[in-house]
C-alpha cells in the first residue's frame, strides 16, 4: 500500500507538471541578467528577450538586472524560483569558478535546469604597439625577465587562459587582476603593464584606435572578426578558452517546458537582429543543448581545479 501510494504520488506530480506545461506560457517570463544594466551584455539580453518573446508567441519577456557576487546573486534568485518556466537566467562559466573557489557556493550545477548554450566570447592577449614581434617573442621575453599581464579577476575565462598559457609554455607571469578592462587599459597604455588579456571586443577597439598589438586569440580556430590574428594553438600552445553565455532555469523544470524553450532558443539564435548585436560585440554563436553546455561547464570546473587557482 505504501509503495502504491508513493507511485500514485509520483504520477500525480508528473501529471501536475504536464498540466502546468500544457498551456505554457500563459503570462510574461522574467529573464535575469546577473550583471549591471548598460553595456554589451545588457544589450544582448534585451534583444534576446525580444526575440524569445516572438518565438514563444508574444507572452512578454522582461529582462531583470540582478548584479552581485560575479553574477551569482541573480543566479541564486533563479535557482530559488518556482520550477514553472516563468523565471530564467543568463549564465556564464564564472559559475564553474564559483563552484570551485567559493568556501560555501550559493549555487551549484545542480541548482539549475540547463536549457541551452548560446554564444562564446573569446579573449586575446594585447600589448602596446611594437612591444613584441609575435607570441613567440612574448614567451621568450617572459622566460628572460618575466612579464606583468592584467586580467579581469580570479576564475574568469581570461584568467584561466592566462594560467593555461603559463602551464603550457613553462613560464611564470605576474598576473594582475582588475575589476574591469578600463582601469587595466589605462595601466597598460601608461606603460605600467607589459600586456593584458581582454575580451576580443575590447581588443578590437584598441586595434582600431592604434592603441594595441594583439598577439593571440583563445578560440580553437581563427575568428572571422580578426582573421589575421593567430590562435594560441597555432602559436604552439594548447590554450582554448572563452566566456560562454547560456540559459538556465531552476532545477526541475517540466520536460515539455524544457523542450519548448530549447526549440525557441534555437530559433532565436537564427534571428538577424540578434546576429547584428553579436557581430557588434565580436561574439561567436555557439549553440549547444542544455546537457552539452553543462558538460562544458564541468570541463571548466576540472580545469580550474587542476590549475589550483587562489580563492
Task: Please give a handful of descriptors for the protein shown.
311 residues; alpha/beta; D-Maltodextrin-Binding Protein, domain 2; 6-stranded mixed beta sheet; 5-stranded mixed beta sheet; 11 helices; 44% helix; 20% strand; globular; disordered N terminus
Q: What characteristic shape results from the CA principal axes? A: globular
Q: For the residues shown, what is the average pLDDT?
A: 90
The major β-sheet equals:
6 strands, mixed
CATH superfamily name of the largest domain? Bordetella uptake gene, domain 1
Number of helices: 11
How many domains comprise the coordinates?
A: 2
Proportion of strand residues = 15-25%
Distance between the terminal alpha carbons, to the nearest Å?
51 Å
**What is the chain-wise order of helices and strands?**
HEHEHEHEEHEHEHEHEEHHEH
CATH architecture of the largest domain: 3-Layer(aba) Sandwich
| Residue share in helix | 40-55%
The CATH class label of the largest domain is Alpha Beta
CATH fold annotation of the largest domain: D-Maltodextrin-Binding Protein, domain 2
Arrangement of strands in the largest sheet: 2-1-3-10-4-11
Describe this structure in words.
This protein has 311 residues and is α/β, with parallel strands linked by helices. 44% of the residues lie in helices and 20% in strands. Strands 2-1-3-10-4-11 form a 6-stranded mixed beta sheet, sandwiched between helices. It contains 11 helices and 11 strands.
